[in-house]
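Q: I'm building a small set of examples for a reading group on sequence design. Run inverse folding on the following structure and report the sequence directly after it, with nothing in between.
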């Protein structure tokens, strides 16, 4: 249980970081790509808020204390949209890894398994999307 709570807190830390990162890129993207990427970064930001909320409540239900600090990995400022996409891809991969690690720690019959699996699948979808955009 402790290991699961630790992993869920790691996931929460990545989600909290993703919220900041996507908000930053949505605000900073300029030029022709702003049209498409600003809404995409905003969507990812909203998704991260939702994921964080589900994970946070799950931790509380398990009797744990959710972290309030984001994962400390630096959020790199850039005006280059390809760099933004590459940093986004990297973030989604790291987050998906944590969800992949925590899923085997949950009973498959548990409601928590379904909600964590759904988040994991949505991270995988984001990875595929980013990969297509990076080319
Ligand atoms: Fe997420």
């Amino acid at each position: 249980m402790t290991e699961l709570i630790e992993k869920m807190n790691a996931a929460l830390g990545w989600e909290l970081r993703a919220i900041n990162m996507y908000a930053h890129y949505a605000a900073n993207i300029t030029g022709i790509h702003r049209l498409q990427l600003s809404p995409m970064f905003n969507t990812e930001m909203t998704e991260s808020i939702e994921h964080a909320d589900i994970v946070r409540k799950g931790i509380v239900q398990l009797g744990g204390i959710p972290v309030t600090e984001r994962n400390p990995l630096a959020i790199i400022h850039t005006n280059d949209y390809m760099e933004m996409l590459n940093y986004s891809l990297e973030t989604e991969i790291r987050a998906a890894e944590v969800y992949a690690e925590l899923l085997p720690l949950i009973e498959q019959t548990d409601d928590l398994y379904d909600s964590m699996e759904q988040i994991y699948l949505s991270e995988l979808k984001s990875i595929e999307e980013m990969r297509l955009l990076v080319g």
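The helical segments are 2-28, 34-61, 81-102, 111-134.
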